[in-house]
Structure of Iron ABC transporter permease:
Amino acid sequence: MTFRMILAFFTLCAISLFFGANQIEWSLLPTLNEKAWLPIIASRLPRLVALILTGSGLAMCGVILQHIVRNRFVEPGTTGSLDAAKLGILVSIVMLPSSDKLERMLFAVLFCFAAGLVYIAIIRKVKFSNTALVPVIGLMFGSVLSALAEFYAYQNNILQSMSGWLMGDFSKVVQEHYEIIFLILPITLLTYLYAHRFTVMGMGEDIASNLGISYAMTAALGLILVSITVAVTVVTVGAIHFVGLVIPNLVALKYGDHLQNTLPIVALGGASLLIFCDVISRVVLFPFEVPVGLTASAVGGVMFLAFLLKGAKA
């Protein structure tokens, strides 16, 4: 992890913390004036924490899925995980109208885990001559789940509201309404503790078995970690794409595939990318803001396209 990356991360954190539509009375901050500190404590600090945890969590989800499937082009958005989480949340809203975020998260985890198992079963069943078809199958699978979610929402008259609260957006993250996202912290710790197993699993089932690692158990653990992270993210801020695709590829290109060494870099890169996208979202139409989900898709898409074109020329 280079000094430049750390410096860029803290610079982005400072910009995110002190930039916004509401003006901060700088002269009153040293006096610990409650009114002056309120926008920072109640809104901007929770938003920054949510950005860091979401970005790092999604980036690590991408790494785990890429090692499970052994394909560089997969992430929660290209395996149906995000769409399955949406469907789970919609089912919880209809079945349990008074459900809170924790109950919705549990439904999302179950649907996301089930979708992950189905996707892996499909990938293992079909022999692909072209690795690019692996994420294509995931996109098709996700489209089916998304269509089911929209049809379910249409049947229950919640289609109009669904598109709003499922779009990746951090503007509604405020104190005492986002704390469930801290569940990503133990997920991060477990991912790091099992980093060596995930690295070996990425070498293939035969090699993993020869080294005494249960491929099925490790894959199941990885899917559980991914499912919880995706569910927490979708419940709190909505769906965000490309973070889990771009960052792991860029890190692997420069630092290799040994997760025990690269996971901190992946987490820092994911957090930095999402904070950068959030700052862009607040600047483009200032004092209004664009949902981060749209900005992340645009920035991540351009970065990944540049990555592919660079690889093609190499």
Observations:
- The CA atoms of residues 10 and 98 lie 40 Å apart.
- The chain is about 75% helix and 0% strand.
- The two ends are 25 Å apart (CA to CA).
- The chain has a mean pLDDT of 83.
